[in-house]
Structure formats: structure tokens, C-alpha cells
Amino acid sequence: MKFLRSHVMICGGADGTSENSAAIAGMFESEIKKRGLEQEIGVLQPGDFGVRGCGQMVAVHPDNIFYCNVTPDDVMEIMEEHLVKGKPVERLIFKPGEDAGIAAKSLSTLNLFYAEYRIALRNCGRINPEIIDEYIERDGYKALEKTLKSMSPAEVVEEIKKSGLRGRGGAGFPTGRKWEVTAGHSADQKFVLCNADEGDPGAFMDRSILEGDPHSVIEGMIIAGYAIGATQGYVYVRAEYPIAVERLQAAVEQARERGYLGDRIMGTDISFDLELRLGAGAFVCGEETAMMNSIEGNRGEPRTKPPFPAEKGLWHKPTLLNNVETFANIAPIINRGSDWFFSIGTEKSKGTKVFAVCGKIRNTGLVEVPMGTTVGEIVFEVGGGIPNGREFKAAQTGGPSGGCIPASLIDTPIDYDSLAEIGSIMGSGGLIIVDDSTCMVDLARFFLEFTCDESCGKCTACRVGTKRILEILNRITSGEAAPEELDNLEILCSAVKESSLCGLGQGAPNPVLSTLKYFRHEYEAHVHDKYCPSGVCKALSKYEIIPDKCKMCGKCAKNCPVECISGVPKETPYVIDQERCVKCGTCYDKCPFDAIKK
Questions:
Q1: Which of 81, 78, 83 is nearest to 68 (CA)?
Q2: Which of 8, 177, 190, 461 has the most CB atoms within 10 Å of its CB?
Q3: Residue 58 dihedral angles phi and psi, to the nearest 5°
């Protein structure tokens, strides 16, 4: 990066490009040129800043000022007031404590660029991902040079083992051990695969790394190829990530041009090359063997194991597969040493973890925290708490295959073993926060609907079992379930979990089992009392006007679409005709006096 007094950084991730970042960047460049400031101010479009709900985001370095909801009309003001006069535009700086969007007023408070434990996301938002020189200036490809010129393959494997790094794709298998096993199998060809098929609802960790720092993944894969003796790698990335695909392909071509990919890498006898394979959006292809079938041109269905991919994987050759975040951690471990990485985290979960925090929380976006950080610290210290005066109810980790963490367990450390003890999983890093307005039965139904649709249908347990689970949940939320169906639901979930062929089916019952464990009273209210405590399930909820609170203003009646509310303005409290009420909630939303309960 050129030595300039200021850098204007316009978010170039998926959120940024959707807000017309290219046009805003062009306006800044034009204004800078008009004023003859090209040697003083630079304009960059790095990857995802890691935050959501802020509209177009613009950062100014080295002032650490973070602007939100920037429009083309604001460019002149930022240019004149901040970049020329040195006075930040206060009205565009997001103020702490507001309910909408991110609650931060500068990059330092946002912890975007100066976070103490920013490892996998170290370059995201800091560099232009389309220019390889900016990656190189931040120690890019130094780890590769170190491994090729001063370490044997066995020494590389041992360094990764000593670091304690575990796979960040969900299962948490020790990365070094996987590399060791794959290296131990002899073959005329071996492969390295990167799983970038991120399909969990609400998850965008891998996409953000690929959009903001693709070379970190490429460098990690080359090092892995050297360590296990592979000469070919594939990145399996979903086609729905066009920006990630475009930047990753450009990064591969640049790395090849600079001699980091291809034959005789960096003047050595080592060869390794990469290709992209685009996934069509099948959730099951996130499972390693289904992914391999897809790369081979076959239907994306899982294979029975053993044999495991380390022995017979892609085209029946030894294959190493890790996800995007895992590979992004490799170069820092090599550069800074395994002891450094081992010192971060907990006894059995080392390093940091990237989470996509979304749902009912003030600060939505990416956060990278040390393993062992508690749920409460993420929700209230990093996430800014629950908006609109609501109460924290639960956090769902691991997406459709994970489980919920109730408010009573908010001090649970987020690491592989602690989550497993309470019936949840780390997963790839999705973290969905729900407040006290959420129906946990309906939440479980949402995840089952997703996994039911995404089942490949190969095994009966998953194909039929998830469908039967969903049918029971539909009956519960519609008030049609018999009392014995709660016991049947648990039995069926256990059967599907134990009998399914791959992780999709084995994990599908987890949202149901965990909500049954911690929120069984909500299930019982639906089944026995025919009542949804959160008022979410329409068939089991009703709206009532509280006479003592009703101010007889008539707004509820005026806005009711079916005219089922009666009363006399300023004379008698209003009443809802329950038989005619369609439970749309309009009256609840329009009442200015909180006189309607549900």
C-alpha cells in the first residue's frame, strides 16, 4: 500500500457492492484528482468490513473513522470537511447504543482493524483483495517461502499439530492429525480441497474471507499441498457468491503469474496448482464425500465411510479437505509459530473462531474472538445487547445442525467441548440470537423445514425421518398435536440422529432436541393448552384488548383489515371479536398505548 496521509476505504464486500460502492469510490477518486491530492489520499475497495445493517460503509485511515449509510450526495461533504479540513462528519458517524445497525462510532471501537485476536480476518477490510501486492506487503506468501525453503513436509505437519488448530468447518477434527494421516498414504496423485460451500442460514464467514482476503486461503492450500505431497487443489465454492468467485479466480491467476502456483514454485522443485469448482447450492455438498462426488461430476450424495477421504477421496486418491477459515489460519501459524497460536483459546480448543452474528441483536456482522469467549460476552459486549428493550432468550449455534443455548447458560464458553456438553455444536460459525418474542417451537420447525428440503434422499432415515419430524412440528404449531406426540417426537429424533448416513441427517434433529431440553414448557403449552406463549404461531395465539389500558382512541378499529374490533370512541373500551379475528397483528402494531396483548 502506498505511503499516503489518508486512505478512503469503501466496503467492497457483498453488502457494500449492493449499496453502489463502485459509484461512490469513483466519486472520491474524481474529487481527489480535481484537488490534486493523488499523492496524499488513496481510495481502496477492500473486502467485507464484517458488519451488517449500516448501508454503504466508508472508513478513513489512519483516523479510524467509520461512516455508515453513505450516499453519493455525502461524498463532497466527507471530502471537504474530513479529508481537507480534518473535521469528521459527525452526522454520518454511527453513535453507540442505537438499536438499528452497528453501535460504534469509529473503527477502533468497532474493533474492525485493531482487534487483538484477528487472525483469520486479519486482512479483511484492510487490503484490496484484487491486488496481490497489498497481500504481499502484509507478509503474504512469507509462510509459503519459509515452508518450501527451510522446512520439510513432516516439519510443517508437526507445526500444525503442535498449534492445536482444529477444523473450523464444524466437526473440529485436529487439523494436523488430518494432514498427518493423509500424508501417510502413498499414491501417484493426491488432492487438497477447500470447502467454501457455506450453506447455513445466516452464515457468511467463508464468503467474507474469500471476498476480502482470497490469497490467505490460497497460501494455506499450497502449504497443505506441500505438507501432504499433493500437486492439485480445488476450491468448491457456491455459485451464489459471485463476488467471492470473481476475486478468488483473479487471485489464483495473480498467484500463478507471480510463481506461487504452478510448476517449480518460487524456484523450487515443488509443483501445485488450483482450480475452482462452482456448487449449485445443495446444502448436502458441504459434506466432504458429497462434495467430492459433485467435483467428479456425479450427483451430490454422501458416500459410506470408511474408507475415509485421507485414504480414498477424490477420484479414489488420498484427499485432504479443510474449510476456508482453517486454511486462512495456516500462514499465521507458520509465520508466528505454533506456540503463539497454542497460547490462545482454551485447553482443548486453540486459537480464535469467526462467528457470523445475526438475529435479534444490535450489532450484526462478523466477529473473531478467542475460543472460550462466553455467549454473554459476544451478545452484550461485542454484539451490543438485544434491541427494542427485549430480553435475550437463546442463541443458536451450528445452524440447522446445531442446538440452542438458553439464557440460563449464557456464561457457557464457546469451544468445542463446552458446546457439546450442553447439546450444541460449534458448526462453521453461525450464531443466531433470538429474543423473548421468539417461539422456540417455531424456530425448530424453521430449521427442520430447511434440512428436510435439503436432504439428498439417499438414506431412508434422513429422507423420511426429517419429513415425519417436520409433520409433527407442523401439527404442534397449528394446535393439532396429540399429547403423546411429544414422546414420539423425541424417539423419532433419536432414530434419525443415529441412523442417518451423513452429518446433514445426523445433525438435523439437534434444533428439536435442544429446544425440547431447554424449552419443553413451550412445547407443552402448544400441545396441552393449545397456546403459543410468544404469540408467534397464529393458530394458537390471540389478541386481546386490556380494558384498563385502552384509551378508547379507536386506532385499532380503524386499522383492522377485517373490521372485527368494536367500541365507541372516548366512551367504551374496544373489544376484539375472536371468531372473526385473523390474527394479523395490525391492532397490536398500531396501538400507541400498549393496550393490546397477545
A1: 78
A2: 8
A3: -135, 130
Mean pLDDT by 10 residues, the chain (598 residues): 70 60 86 88 72 74 79 90 88 57 38 58 86 94 97 98 94 95 96 92 86 96 98 95 93 98 96 96 91 95 94 97 97 97 95 92 86 92 87 93 94 93 87 94 96 93 96 96 95 96 93 96 95 90 91 95 94 92 90 90
Determine how β-strand 232-238 pairs with β-strand 58-61: unpaired
Q: Report residue 387 as a C-alpha cell.
A: 434491541
Helix (H, G, I), strand (E, B) or coil at 232: strand
Tabulate helix, strand, coil % of the chain (nearest 5).
40, 15, 45
Round to whole Å and give the CA distance between 460 and 507: 15
How many other CB atoms are there within 10 angstroms of residue 476's CB atom? 25
Of the candidates 208, 135, 147, the one whose C-alpha atom is nearest the C-alpha of residue 179 is 147
| C-alpha–C-alpha distance, residues 454 and 504, integer Å | 9
**For residue 422, which amino acid is it?**
I
Task: Count Cβ atoms below 10 Å from residue 263 Cβ, excluding itself.
Answer: 11
Residues 353, 180 contacting (CB under 8 angstroms): no
State which H helix or E strand residue 325 sits in. helix 324-328
Taking alpha carbons only, the member of 432, 435, 439, 467 closest to residue 453 is 467
Res 583: pLDDT: 87
In this predicted structure, what is the pLDDT of residue 454? Answer: 92
Q: Mutual orientation of helices 485-499 and 460-477 as an angle, nearest 10°? A: 160
Would you call 351 helix, strand, or coil by DSSP?
A: coil
**Residues paired with residue 529 on neighbouring β-strands, in sequence order:** none
Confidence (pTM) = 0.85
Look at residue 99 in the predicted model and tell me its pLDDT. Answer: 38
Q: Which strand ranges, in their side-by-side order, compose the sheet holding 430-435?
A: 365-370, 352-359, 430-435, 392-397, 403-406
* Bridge partner list, 483: none
- Judge whether 454 and 286 are in contact, CB under 8 Å: no
Closest CA to 505 of 388, 382, 401: 401
Residue 497's pLDDT is what? 95
CA 475 – CA 75 distance, rounded (Å): 54
State residue 496's pLDDT score: 96
Closest to 476 (Cα-Cα) out of 438, 484, 511, 399: 484
Identify which of 104, 57, 62 has the alpha carbon closest to the alpha carbon of residue 83: 62
- CB-side exposure of 154: number of CA atoms within 13 Å? 1
